[in-house]
Amino acid sequence: RIFENMLFTGAAKDMVQLRLNCDFFKAKAEGKLPKHKMLVFTGPIDAFYASQGLPKLEYRSIRFEEKVMKKPDQGFFQEAMVVNYTSAEVPFTRIVEYKHTPNQPEAIKAGECKDSVVYYEYSTAEGDPYYPVPNPANAA
What we know:
- By secondary structure, this protein is of the alpha+beta class.
- 20% of the residues lie in helices and 20% in strands.
């Protein structure tokens, strides 16, 4: 509710107009955008850049692979929740073991769950865009 309180209470409530589920580019082309001093576009950034005649950004996506680790030492597969792997010799970018998070069920906290589930993350060019590629073309 922080954004609702920030945008829709006090002096801001008369100055902020929210529009949901509308086509920004169609409304702009038809001259139907409201008069404004500042407009915040919250859609896909590539769509906005394309409307300005700029090329699409290059993105990387992530493929997740789940593995069950049977009875790892000390109850955990790894020492931390997230371990990043930056070497080119390793095919994945990180391993995440959510068993480390503090809000686990009591059985896990008590050590009654002997196995652990980990997720390997693989960088890929296919799928939902997660990260823009840090290259000169994207920085232009």
